[in-house]
Every structure is written in C-alpha cells, then in structure tokens.
Automatic annotation (TrEMBL):
<keyword id="KW-0560">Oxidoreductase</keyword>
<protein>
    <submittedName>
        <fullName>SDR family oxidoreductase</fullName>
    </submittedName>
</protein>
<dbReference type="GO" id="GO:0016491">
    <property type="term" value="F:oxidoreductase activity"/>
</dbReference>
<comment type="similarity">
    <text>Belongs to the short-chain dehydrogenases/reductases (SDR) family.</text>
</comment>
<dbReference type="InterPro" id="IPR036291">
    <property type="entry name" value="NAD(P)-bd_dom_sf"/>
</dbReference>
<dbReference type="InterPro" id="IPR002347">
    <property type="entry name" value="SDR_fam"/>
</dbReference>
<dbReference type="Pfam" id="PF13561">
    <property type="entry name" value="adh_short_C2"/>
</dbReference>
C-alpha cells in the first residue's frame, strides 16, 4: 500500500530511541521529511545519522520536553526547517514510576504537558497546511490499573481522554487525532531490556501474560503509527489502538 507520505513533514517529539526512533525511521523510509528531538545529545545525533541514511530530509535538536519554552521553541524550529508541519507524533515519556511528588511531576510535565504544548504549537502549522494528523503515544497502562507505576498509568489515561477531546475540536480543521497504547515493547536499553536481566521475575511474569509469548518490537508500533497518520486512515479519528499482541486480553 502506498501510504502517500512522500511529501509529508513529520515532527516526532521524543524520537531518539525505542518507539520514537522506530516511528521516525519508518516515516523517513516512506520518503517523508522528519524532525526529531530528545533530551540527550548523543542519542539525537545517533538517530539523526540513521535517519539521514534513508535519504530523507532530516532536522534534529535537543529539547527537554518537560520545559514549556523549550517545547514551543523546538516545534517552531522544526516547522521552519521542514517548511511546515503535516504530522505531529507525541512520544516522549518521563516515565513517572513512584507515587510521590517526583514521580507525578515527571509524568505530568513530560507525558501530558509536553504533549499539550507541542500540540498547541503545531496546530497552527497543520491548519495552514490544510489539515493533517496528530498521534499520541499512550500505553495499555492507561487502560487498566497501574499499581507498580501510578503516575505513569494515570497520565497515559489522560492522553487517551485528550485524544478524544482534540479529535472532536480539530475535525473542523481537517486534523485527525489518534492514539496508540503500546503493550510491553522490548528494545535495546529500554525498560524491558533492562528488566530481562535486572528483574527477571517481573520480566517473565509479564511475558507469561502475552498470548504470543514474546514482547513487542518498536517497529511493530511504528507500523501502526504510520498507518494512522497516513491517507489510508483518512476516516479514523479519536481512536486509541492497543498494539500489545493481545496482552490486554488476559
């Protein structure tokens, strides 16, 4: 299927590793112009190099997505570098695990407010382009109790609700807003890659609850992401799609 992404200008907030990097790379491989940001300079540089190898136009910058001014500045810089914005992907996570002020602040500032701020800044550019797509990356932790990570689960649930609200508000501007809720995704240096050796009891317990008997890959999330942002999903908005290998079925 030709996803008609060759002329699209895509901003991936949180695109240096894991799911975000896979999404950015998938867009670049489809011929889109791509901008990525993340907090770590080394990770951004490495991802930028990989993206440029596809032949795509690439913009990359360091940005603390928990800092409002930095988020707004990055999105504006990305729009200038790409010549506009057609697609915004909000992927970054502060991954607040602990039920204390620090844990809640990490998730709220990055996952929620980073998404809100990036979207508010990008929307005028999507309107100028005549429409486009916004995709939020939530988690299946937002669809069920999240006892191990209360802030993470609650804020990911907020992103699912935000998707509904933004989809209803922006339809008049021909802007679609959808959300992906990944299950347990394993990639080098990620949470589950670390847990495999650092907390094998937890890793194996989660693995036992996935019908396919394996963790998902970042590329499998990326496949869903580029479809939802493409013309092939032109009549899909306000939806949250679990990409979890049936993990929520247990």
């Amino acid at each position: 299927m030709d996803l008609n992404l060759k002329t699209r200008r895509v901003v991936v907030a949180g695109g240096s590793r894991g799911i975000g990097r896979a999404i950015a790379l998938a867009f670049a491989q489809e011929g889109a112009a791509v901008s990525i940001c993340a907090r770590g300079a080394d990770g951004v540089k490495d991802a930028e190099t990989a993206l440029k190898q596809t032949g795509a136009k690439v913009h990359a910058a360091t940005c603390d997505l928990g800092d409002g001014d930095a988020v707004r500045g990055y999105v504006e810089a990305a729009a200038q570098a790409l010549g506009g914005i057609d697609i915004l992907v909000n992927n970054a996570s502060g991954f607040g695990r602990t039920d204390d002020e620090a844990g809640w602040a990490a998730s709220i500032n990055v996952d929620l407010m980073g998404t809100v701020r990036a979207t508010q800044t990008a929307v005028p550019h999507l309107q100028k382009a005549g429409g486009g797509a916004i995709l939020h990356i939530s988690s299946i932790s937002g669809l069920a109790p999240s006892v191990r990570t209360p802030p993470y689960g609650a804020v990911k649930a907020a992103l699912i609700q935000l998707t509904l609200t933004q989809a209803a508000a922006l339809a008049k501007d021909n802007i679609r807003v959808n959300c992906i809720a990944p299950g347990s995704i394993e990639f080098p240096g990620g949470v589950w890659d670390q847990a495999k050796t650092g907390n094998p009891k937890l890793y194996n317990g989660i693995l036992a609850g996935i019908p396919f008997g394996r963790m998902g890959t970042a590329e499998e999330v990326a496949n869903a992401a580029i479809f939802l942002c493409s013309a092939g999903a032109s009549w899909i908005t306000g939806q949250t799609v679990a990409v979890d290998g049936g993990q929520m079925l247990g």
